[in-house]
Amino acid sequence: MTAVLFGITLIASAGVGVVNLITEEPIAEAKKAATIAALNNVLPTFDDNRITELEIDALPIKVYTATAAGEVVGYAVETMTKNGFGGAIRMMVGFTPTGEVINVNVLEQGETPGLGTKMTDEGNPLITSFKGKNPADMKMAVRKDGGDIDALTAATISSRAYVDAMNRAWTAYQHVSAAEPAADATAAAETEAQEGGNQ
Fold it and tell me: Is 136 within a domain?
């Protein structure tokens, strides 16, 4: 009996391992394709990007600094919250170099169908509250909590979670974009020093 159970367990474990090997690469490729599609959806045309990884409130956040012909054209922040009604929500948020929200793409959510899931709908109240606006000029909370953000009907918890993720995205954008002028100034100073040395 013990030998039979051990044999079954061994075969089952081997099967799981084989399936994992077969599916691991396609899953990674699918995630990569989804990330690229999300970047294209929230950013203007770009030819290169660099990734900055941050941790905000103990959550991993990625910032993609998008450039075209060497100039920064926008920032995409892969942000998240664990406060959704159905658990974690992951989003990609695009910002202009000056901080206006270009677009928001919900990458993952497990909210209630027909209620919280409306955060993925085009033109929903949450996205229209942000799109084209600079969070610096807004109170980042739903109206029920005294903020400027219109919530989804009958989905206050989901709406609060969405705003929580947006707050994290805004913090990440500020952190990364603030480093850009300093980098540009350093480059300019180095160029001037080189030119001065050549004269």
Answer: yes
